[in-house]
Write a structure and sequence with these properties.
The chain is an alpha/beta fold and about 525 residues long. It has helices at about 10-20, 25-35, 65-70, 85-95, 100, 115-120, 170-185, 235-240, 245-250, 265-270, 290-325, 360, 390-395, 410-415, 480-500, and strands at about 40-45, 75-80, 125-130, 145, 160, 165, 195-200, 275-280, 285-290, 335-340, 360-370, 375-385, 425-430, 440-445, 450-455, 460-465. It folds into 3 domains: about 5-205 and about 315-345 and about 365-420, Alkaline Phosphatase, subunit A (3-Layer(aba) Sandwich), CATH 3.40.720.10; about 215-300, no CATH class; about 440-500, no CATH class. It contains 15 helices and 16 strands. The chain is globular. The relative contact order is 0.18. Bound molecules: calcium ion.
Length: about 525
């Protein structure tokens, strides 16, 4: 049996017991732990799959992510259970839905609960997290951490570490990559490592570095087909959401220069307001843009900065992959690339996320593991963010804990097609009202359809994804679709019960408070 499979099937508890009983000689422990694969888990913040060329992006090129996909496997259908930063991160760590891990909104993560960092650490992995954390409490289960407070800063960011606070000059994406390299260089030689390399980029306010500041200056980025969506056939929620490119991007988002003579407070207020006309220079002429011309300008302004942030991420992924090669770590290191959820890139007229629509429900997921994955695979398997922790458990040769709700993706990585794989995913978003006035909803996405219930107002949407992938034609209420809808409703009730979401929508939500200074590191 190959050494990396030696521990497969053993519970971490039984491994620890055996070690404790002295039944494993020191040499065997050493061999087993040093040949288990390393795991580098790269996660960005708000990077939609449709801004990765390996996923068919029409708006940018990401050569290093494409290379990663070409050398590994690309999941075309990976979905988030609750499309928002903090809850997705809690689900990823625990392998559980929001209603099981205590983080339905922006409330602090209880680090006393079991999670993947702890399991891997206890089984002998050297564990670390650098970059975005955004879970509001001090990281547990990580031997080393260097994390941004709350959302963190793009430029000259401050980090919270066990030793205290540290501000580092430079650009966050470069710095976080450098920190990841330091973690690998300084790791204990006798342990495999688990590294969470979590970028802030490309989160709002989409602030690029100097190196990419003028990228795309010479061209227009294609507009999405649904930029001017009028939300006809949809329920009230789409019209009520305050996250349109046209009417909600503020002056800070659009990087407009403030007028002189304002106090700091006045400048901040000015940045926070939405311009409904903008005077700018076009072909050497000063023009004032309004309405349709202003929408076109705002979209370009928004999407170019978003893509510039991604260009830096892509460069740094390339830099890190080269580093792994130089360190001789390519073969037995699993590299995962994902984002905490997708994002609207002008789709349906929006920026941001939260809704159950495809653009932000879908997460990119690329995995490279030369020792086990045949290069160039693409799978349509329905994956979820709750599958990541079980996957890491199996990669590490550990038994997946019974209370994790996700399933290991390792069979898919190995080119197998496991029986009884899921054919539908459950979704639930809790805030209402919250940021961007997005309404609470839950629903089901099957291989072919999506059913969404905005439960507070008892409004429903249903889409046939095979005929209407852009989700523009709500078929709920269409008499010819009544049987389809009735079947989906039954399926949704069953799925809600199966994932043990027994809440009947009367919950009092925890207070949002992870965006302050998160936590004060416990200085020894
Ligand atoms: Ca996010």
């Amino acid at each position: 049996m190959p050494p990396d499979r030696l521990l497969a099937g053993w519970t971490q508890l039984s491994v620890r017991r055996l070690i404790g009983l002295g039944l494993l000689c020191a040499g065997l422990v050493h061999a087993a732990t040093t040949t288990r694969p390393n795991i580098v888990f790269i996660m960005t913040d708000d990077h939609a799959a449709h801004a990765i060329s390996a996923y068919g992006s029409k708006i940018n090129q990401t050569p290093h992510l494409d290379q990663l996909a070409a050398e590994g496997i690309r999941f075309n259908r990976c979905f988030v259970g609750n499309s928002i930063c903090t809850p997705s991160r809690a689900s990823i760590l625990t392998g559980k839905y929001s209603h099981k891990n205590g983080v339905p909104t922006f409330n602090p993560f209880n680090g006393a609960q079991p999670h993947i960092g702890k399991y891997l650490q206890q089984s002998g992995y050297h564990t670390g997290i650098v970059g975005k954390w955004h879970l509001g409490t001090e990281p547990t289960g990580f031997d080393e951490y260097s994390v941004l407070p709350g959302q963190g800063a793009y430029h000259n960011p401050m980090f919270l570490e066990r030793q205290g606070r540290r501000t580092i000059p430079g650009y966050a994406t470069d710095i976080i990559t450098d920190m990841a390299m330091d973690f690998v260089r300084n790791r204990p030689a006798d342990k495999p490592f688990f590294l969470c390399l979590h970028h802030k980029a490309p989160h709002r306010e989409w602030s690029p570095d100097a190196k990419h500041a003028t990228l795309y200056d010479d061209r227009d980025i294609p507009e999405p087909a649904t930029l001017r969506d009028d939300y006809s056939t949809r329920t009230d929620a789409a019209r009520e959401a305050t996250m349109t490119v046209a009417r909600h991007l503020n002056r800070r988002d659009l990087k407009l220069p403030p007028p002189g003579g304002l106090t700091e407070a006045e400048t901040n207020r000015w940045y926070g307001t939405v311009p409904m006309e903008v005077t700018t220079t076009v072909n050497g002429q000063e023009v004032t843009l309004k309405d349709e011309a202003l929408l076109r300008w705002k979209y370009q302004r928004y999407i170019k900065d978003y893509l510039r942030c991604i260009a830096s991420v892509d460069d740094n992924v390339g830099r890190f992959l080269t580093f792994l090669d130089v360190q001789g770590l390519r073969e037995n290191t699993v590299v995962v690339y994902t984002s905490d959820q997708g994002f609207f890139l002008g789709d349906h007229g929006w920026y941001d996320k939260r809704f159950m629509y495809e653009e932000c429900l879908r997460m990119p997921l690329i995995v490279r593991w030369p020792a086990a994955i045949r290069p160039g695979q693409v799978t349509e398997a329905m994956a979820q963010n709750i599958d990541f922790a079980p996957t890491f458990m199996e990669i590490a040769g550990l038994k997946v804990p019974g209370d994790m709700q996700g399933r290991s993706l390792v069979p898919w990585l190995r080119g197998q097609h496991p029986r009884n794989w899921r054919t539908a995913v459950y979704y639930r978003y809790y805030h209402d009202p919250g940021h961007h006035n997005t309404r609470a909803h839950y629903g089901i996405r099957t291989e072919t359809h999506k059913l969404i219930h905005f439960w507070k107002v008892d409004q429903w949407e249903c889409y046939d994804l095979t005929k209407d992938p852009a989700e523009l034609h709500n078929i709920y209420g269409d008499p010819t679709q009544a049987r389809v809808v009735a079947r989906l409703k039954q399926q949704l009730v069953r799925l809600k019960r199966d994932v043990q979401d027994h809440d009947e929508f009367s919950v009092t939500l925890p207070k949002d408070n992870v965006d302050s200074l998160s936590f004060v590191p416990a200085i020894p």
